[in-house]
Amino acid sequence: MADVFDYLEWRGDISFSEVGVNEIDSLILSMICYVDFDGIVPRGRKNSPTLLAAARQYTNEHKGENIKMGAILPSGIINLLVRAAKTRRFGGARLSGYVNKVELESQTQFSALTYSLGDKTTFVAYRGTDDTLVGWKEDFNMSFMSAVPAQLEAVSYLEEAAEAFEGDIYCGGHSKGGNLAIYATVKARAEVGDRVLRTYNLDGPGFTREFIESEEYARAREKLVTIIPESSVVGMLLEHEENYEVVKSKQMGLLQHYAPFWELMGSRFLRLNDVSEDSKIIDRTLKSWLSQMDMKQREEFVDTLYDILISTNATTLSDIADDKMKLIKAWGSVPDEHKALVLKSIKLLVRNVKLKVR
């Protein structure tokens, strides 16, 4: 069955002026957002290169290298960048506003990119969680914080893009990037949010009940689209109320999170009626587990796990994967009261797993 690479062959010669943005385009633009364009795409809005020029510069600078996107993202994203850049549809898009912020002190991981697609159409793409430990810590913070720093950054970024460009706006992102896209659309100033035609959340986590019951969310709800694969885990986290679509993937299990392998026909993903039973069990288990911890307990658990990880002097998941002994040694140095907290939380999770699978 076809995937995004087949789509590039089929639709690649048709400009956005001829046929507007669709959900497959949102996936391609959102995944390219994972590429490190530092020194290639400006933070400002002037001297913006085309996607073709940016792809050429990136591949020239990394010629002969074994490019790694981290422990969780395949380097196939670079192939997607190169293939898309060679098409008429994507190659002429102008890239600007590249930002990649990782701050340990504020526990912030935020990256975004703006595409000018022609005919006064703008696509604002938010990067999902990268390989950094602080990025994962910020994700877990969503379970007990009303708004994490990256979400606030996403709002400011969208408002800035709206001031820089006229016309219609689309937003999108994969994984946490999808969450940021929805948050920005909902929380941006009304005159900005009104210009957003559609926002795509590609297997990104949901929100707190307070957020999705807000008047701002209700106003934006009809333009919000969440797309998840059959065996989704990340996309089932927290709460969703927006339009919810389940799609078929060529991969199995957790590997379905990698969106370029989602199956499609024409300019739409292949729909399924529902997520898999395994996905439902995981979803119910995690929600039940979280419901048995108040906000303070969630915060203490997340903070303790993070402290253990950074005590290894690792900064990325790849660092830990490359030297697992660091993690074992770090656990040995954890104070007894912190060990007890982690073990108690894990036992609670295991108990919920047993209850849900019976």
Secondary-structure map with pairings?
Elements: H1 4-11, H2 23-32, H3 51-61, H4 76-85, H5 88-91, E1 94-103, E2 108-118, E3 121-126, H6 133-141, H7 149-164, E4 168-174, H8 176-187, H9 190-193, E5 196-202, H10 209-212, H11 215-220, E6 224-229, E7 243-247, E8 264-265, E9 268-269, E10 271-272, H12 277-291, H13 295-310, H14 317-322, H15 324-332, H16 336-357
Parallel strand pairs: 3-4, 4-5, 5-6, 6-7
Antiparallel strand pairs: 1-2, 2-3, 7-10, 8-9
Short overview:
By secondary structure, the protein is α/β, with parallel strands linked by helices. Helix content is 45%, strand content 16%.
Plain-language structure description:
The protein has 358 residues and is of the alpha/beta class. It is 45% helix and 16% strand. The chain has helices at 4-11, 23-32, 51-61, 76-85, 88-91, 133-141, 149-164, 176-187, 190-193, 209-212, 215-220, 277-291, 295-310, 317-322, 324-332, 336-357; strands at residues 94-103, 108-118, 121-126, 168-174, 196-202, 224-229, 243-247, 264-265, 268-269, 271-272. The strands form two sheets. The protein has an eight-stranded mixed sheet with strand order 1-2-3-4-5-6-7-10, sandwiched between helices. A two-stranded antiparallel ribbon has the order 8-9. Helix 3 packs across helix 4. Residues 353-358 have low confidence and may be disordered.
Secondary-structure class: alpha/beta
Structure annotation, total helices = 16
Helix content: 40-55%
Largest sheet, order of strands side by side?
1-2-3-4-5-6-7-10
Average per-residue pLDDT, rounded, comes to 84
Q: Unreliable stretches, pLDDT < 50, 5 or more residues?
A: 353-358
The first-to-last residue Cα distance is: 35 Å
> Secondary-structure element sequence?
HHHHHEEEHHEHHEHHEEEEEHHHHH
- Integer-rounded radius of gyration: 20 Å
Basic shape = globular
Biggest sheet descriptor: 8 strands, mixed
Count of individual beta strands: 10
As a percent range, the share of strand residues is: 15-25%
